[in-house]
Specification:
Number of domains: 1
Bound molecules: zinc ion
Strand order of the largest sheet: 4-3-5
Strand content: 15-25%
Helix content: 25-40%
Number of helices: 5
CATH class: Mainly Alpha
Shape: globular
CATH superfamily: Winged helix-like DNA-binding domain superfamily/Winged helix DNA-binding domain
Number of strands: 5
CATH topology: Arc Repressor Mutant, subunit A
Order of helices and strands: HHHHEEEEHE
CATH architecture: Orthogonal Bundle
Distance between the termini: 15 Å
Structural class: alpha+beta
Largest sheet: 3 strands, mixed
């Protein structure tokens, strides 16, 4: 799997500038995210960060905070769950997602510009979009 090189320096400085309170748990969760080379579930993150089961709420809150400042992107799965990956602040990606092993390939391409323009013409504001492509990867075939 190709992995686009993450600018961890940028991620860290973005975090610093965000005025998010730096807590030990938050730091653990970021460190855990950095050890994965694929998107992960909140449960996987909690386990990698070696946090107790009851800390899943903390993990979700931290992910929400990271999503808010744009250093994490959520990837919705077909079953309604979401997996998460670190991303360079401000970047926007779509993915090919293996529905069996959750391996993903990032797409450096977004086709939604025209659609968003159309939505704006229809009077929509605060527009966003979701587009992921699901299938079975080479290893899972
Ligand atoms: Zn797979
Ligand atoms: Zn897009």
């Amino acid at each position: 799997m190709k992995r686009l090189k993450l600018n961890t320096q940028r991620i860290r400085s973005c975090l610093k500038e965000s005025h998010l309170r730096s807590t030990r748990k938050r730091e653990c969760i970021l460190e855990a995210l950095l050890t994965f080379d694929r998107p992960v579930s909140a449960e996987e993150l909690r386990d990698r960060a070696d946090l107790p089961k009851s800390d899943l709420v903390t993990v979700y809150r931290t992910i929400e905070a990271f999503l808010g400042i744009g250093i994490v992107q959520g990837i919705p799965l077909e079953d309604g769950k979401t997996i998460y990956e670190l991303t360079d602040p401000g970047d926007h990606h779509h993915h090919f997602v293996c529905r069996k092993c959750h391996k993903t390939e990032r797409l450096d391409l977004c086709l939604a510009g025209e659609l968003e323009k159309k939505a704006r013409k229809l009077g929509f504001s605060d527009i966003s979009h979701v587009m992921e492509v699901y299938g079975s990867c080479e290893d899972c075939n």
